[in-house]
Specification:
Length: 260
Amino acid sequence: INAGVFIQIISIVNCGEWAVNWRRRLLSMVLRTITVLLSSSYKARETFKLVIGWEPLQALILQIEEGSCSEETTMLLFNMMIDSVDGKYYVSGGLPSQMSTLPHYDGGIDEPEECCQIQNVDCLPLILGLLPSMSEELCLLVVKSLYLQNLRHPQNLSLACAPAIHMMESLMKLVVTVHNNPLLCTHIIQLIQQCGTHSMPVRDLKSLLALLNPLQPQTRNAYAPLLCAALQSMCVSQGPSMYLEFDGRKSNIVVPVMDE
């Protein structure tokens, strides 16, 4: 894919004196187009990251949405993350009126549904970066979706906990931001616990302990029991101590078909 394609697509939104509703419609079409171009193409994703970058895309979204990420944009980003080109999993038959229509994941830990498999993990930091700009109701649905669907499978959890994603850092900052919403904070701490069970770098552990600092009374007083319980659960292994991961792109390993 020519790098200029991405530049032209992004520039469409910024050119001309578009009305607000038209700019949002253009943003929707741009996100859908980017999803198609990046789908199942490692080279295209690397080109997009180099030429445009995810942070400028986040800034563009906030600029057009006037600082508040909408439900439609959020679902389009979920589609981008799971390579759902036609939006059949998260946007079916047009946009639903409520995001609560997201599919609920009831599968086992080793049987992720196709709609839950993360294909474009670079999109996850974009979603995390937009969480503070979402309404608390929408933010809660996104956190619950990540907890119940996308991050229940070890491969997805491994991708999300990579240092470059800054998953834990984003979630702990969000706890401080929305500390007045007990329900939302409870679900965020559950997601922190889920990620920490897989991996807990020293830097993130320090940040988590900082939430219990007396200088952070808004989180220490209200959520100390939950945070302590999360720390305790992180010490309990819930999966294999070691595993192999072949992503099909960089492993360079060809395995013959094995008989059942």
